[in-house]
Amino acid sequence: MNIPKNLKYTSSHEWVRIEGNTVFIGITDYAQEHLGEIVFVELPEVNDEVTKGAPLAVVESVKAAADVYAPLSGTVSEVNEALLDNPELVNQDPYENWIVTLEISNPAEIEDLLDPAEYEKVCEQEE
Amino acid sequence: MAQNKQTPLIFEISQPGRKGYSLPPCDVPEKEVSELLPADFLREKPPLLPEVSELDTVRHFTRLSQRNYGVDAGFYPLGSCTMKYNPKVNEVVSRLSGFLHVHPYQAEETVQGCLQIMYELDRMLSEITGMDRFSLQPAAGAHGELAGLLAIKAYHTARGESRRTKIIVPDSAHGTNPASAAMAGFEVIQVKSNAQGGVDLDSLKAAVSPELAGLMLTNPNTLGLFDENITEIAEIIHAAGGLLYYDGANANAILGIARPGDMGFDVVHLNLHKTFSTPHGGGGPGSGPVGVKKDLIPFLPKPLVEFRDGKYYLDGDLPLSLGKVRSFYGNFTVMVKAYAYILSLGAKGLKEVSENAVLNANYLLQKLKGLFLLPYDRICMHECVFSGQNYHSQGVAVLDIAKRLLDYGYHPPTIYFPLIVQEALMLEPTETESKETLDEFIAALKAIVEEIQTDPELVRSAPYSTVVQRLDEAAAARHPKLRWQPETNK
After folding, report:
1. Domain co-membership, B324 together with B216
2. Would the pLDDT of B303 be above 50?
3. Which of A121, A111, A126 has the alpha carbon at shortest distance from A16?
4. What pTM was estimated for this model as a whole?
5. Which of B135, B148, B204, B362 is most exposed, with minimal Cβ within 10 Å?
6. C-alpha–C-alpha distance, residues B214 and B369, integer Å
């Protein structure tokens, strides 16, 4: 299972890449593996405001539809529209194919995110 | 039947000019349709309808109908769906002329029998669930959920508590629960399951607030497990000013044994088309009556059937009612089947339904325990949930096992649901199957597990005996072909 060292994580299987005030958000390798072949991604609107823990996007596979939760609070600055036509990109490379970027409004929340070692434990417990 | 595999689409057997009718000469002067209708309403091109003979049509649809698999053809252990056998006599009863040929606009005094059945069915369902009153209007389970939630909303609003906008739904709930709550305008809060598969009480306590409108719960839940903490759960919700909604989709497990009303629930819906003798799975019609405790009766959909001075009548004078949720009175013939079923089984028979449903599920659970993982190893209710995760290392997914079951002549169980069990395999045998049928099914699963050990590829590529073989489900969802396109098929 691939858990890149340079990212932060949530226990609900989102990854976060922090670049200043902008964060890139996607789902982890563990998440895409367990969802199976992803057939549909529903994106929010740019400028939507989200609070940490609220549903941000939806990924739907042949098995299930799953909410992607906002790991941090902020405003949606970009959505990865390539996923609308090619949702399988999330399976092919879940870390390269981010889903949403946020301009975060409360940097203190970053403290609550998991580091790679903590996230690995979460995955082990779920196995 | 080999030739049945190659049934072309009816469009593909079309021959120009072939037809299945012969009309007599027109006895009025013929006019061009363009003289009769404004140009705006005229098609530019004629519709592309298949041109076929009567016999072509009959054979085509007969062949398609032979591809159906239903409970009348074989075992159908689709968990969460209660695909049980429904006695044919109830179909006959529902088709009696007095039921079938009435019109919803008929005067009340001419349909007293129909109104009596609705009135008495309300009483029966109330007794079975421990509620005080039912509305029979909702046309299906999720429709009942919506009506029940709107009643909860109307109740809080009438008490000046419209701030109550949140509904708690456990993660083991039916998918319709959060969807119905969202549709009714509530915010959904999910709470986790505990290690026994029930509601985690600490998570529940943390989730209640002055904004709480209620909790939606299925008991037994989608793991087929009865939540023994239900009275404590009810106390927590009621203490916070919320109401309890019971999803009755799993009512087949509790008839005559436990009543949602006694557990502390305030609102219940039942799926008559699961539990009370209407076959389902073909798109309906269904029926999802919603029942409530006394305090919520004023908010039920209207009209309700009442009885006074020896006459049944429809009472639409309910000022606080949430209104109508269905044209006329709901799917009436489904109510007739439920009425006939309840009367013919009686209290003792209904209890035996649930006893046998639970016994059959536990028989499967014990017999299959060694073959699959059992994440919640407890006595189950009407269904049991295994995990096929133990075959992951052989590269076999539970999807493959389900597909292989088709070759053994079975409708596969529910898979990948509930979501809280990885590689879930969910079996609901129902009360109407014999021990012999269950044993044959168990033997088929044993044979498949043996195939996984000796020839996993055989299972991975199944099915082989069906009209079409393994389908690419991802491609079908990503690039659906929703209709036949003549230009791409010629």
Report:
1. yes
2. yes
3. A111
4. 0.90
5. B362
6. 37
Domain of A85 in residue numbering reads as 14-121
Q: Which residues of B are less than 8 Å from A40 in CB distance?
A: 477-478
- pLDDT per residue as tens digits for the range B338-359: 999 999 999 999 999 999 999 9
Cα angle B486-B488-B490, degrees, rounded to a multiple of 5 = 65
- Tell whether B484 is covered by a domain: no
Residue B40 belongs to what domain range?
Answer: 2-66
Nearest residue in B to A38, CA atom: B474
Is B326 found in the same domain as B363?
A: no
Tokens 């549709």 identify what position?
B183
- Chain A nearest-CA distance from B490, in A, is 27
Q: Pick from B169, B172, B473, B478 the residue to mutate for testing the A interface (most A CBs within 10 Å).
A: B478
Nearest to B291 by CA among B134, B121, B125: B134
Mean pLDDT of B79-92: 95
Is A99 part of a structural domain of the chain? yes
- What is the number of structural domains in chain B? 3
Has residue B286 been placed in a domain? yes
Q: Which of A12, A34, A35, A39 to mutate to test the interface with B (most CBs of B within 10 A)?
A: A39
Contact across the interface for A37 and B473, Cβ inside 8 Å: yes
Write the residue in A62, A64, A66 that is nearest to B473 by C-beta: A62
The beta strands (E) that lie in B136-273 are given as 166-170, 187-191, 212-217, 243-248, 267-270
Domain tally, chain A: 1
Looking at residue A115, which CATH number applies to its domain?
2.40.50.100
Q: Is the pLDDT of residue B489 over 80?
A: no
Q: What is the value of ipTM here, to two decimals?
A: 0.80
Q: Which among B252, B344, B276 is positioned nearest to B136, based on CA atoms?
A: B276
Identify the three-state secondary structure at position B183: helix
User: pLDDT of A26-65, one tens digit each?
Assistant: 999 999 999 999 999 999 999 999 999 999 999 999 888 8
Same structural domain for residues B184 and B276?
A: yes
Residue in A with minimal Cα distance to B415: A63
> Does B118 lie in the same domain as B48?
no
Domain of B246, CATH number, reads 3.40.640.10
Asked whether residue A127 is domain-assigned, the answer is no
Chain B nearest-CA distance from A20, in A, is 32
